[in-house]
Design brief:
The structure is a single chain. By secondary structure, this protein is α+β, with helices and mostly antiparallel strands. Helix content is 27%, strand content 26%. The protein has three helices and five strands. The protein has a five-stranded mixed beta sheet, with helices on both faces. The radius of gyration is 13 Å and the shape is globular.
């Protein structure tokens, strides 16, 4: 089940995203850590801000409406954040019934830093 969600994230989200950012690591290579943020167009005001400034990762933003049905079924609430390292999900967050995020840039950057150590 995790593998299928990972495959969906890796193959569908980048093609339907509205914002991507590559952050080279110190040695100049592209990071293997990817942060995906999924939200709905109608919930845009509750997008977690400034994630395009995350360091040491690639950032991808996409709309839930643009994703395949099999992926939509996995998302219970938006915004949702998934962090992958080498294609494996190492962190996931979904806002809950309020659809207002309770985490921000600093918490996600801390999770990215943890993911880089794995």
């Amino acid at each position: 089940m995790k593998n299928s969600l990972t495959l969906i994230l890796l193959f569908f989200i980048p093609f339907n995203s509205t914002s991507t950012r590559y952050s080279p690591t110190i040695d100049g290579s592209v990071s293997k850590v990817v942060v995906y943020q999924i939200n709905s167009e109608w919930n845009e005001r509750n997008t977690i801000k400034n994630l395009s400034g995350l360091r040491g990762c690639k950032y991808v933003y996409g709309y839930l409406e643009d994703q395949p049905d099999v992926f939509k079924e996995k998302i219970k609430s938006v915004p949702a954040v998934f962090i992958t390292n080498d294609g494996k999900i190492v962190y996931k967050y979904q806002a809950g019934l309020s659809m207002v995020p309770t985490i921000g840039y600093k918490e996600i950057q801390a999770e990215v830093n943890k993911a880089k150590l794995k």
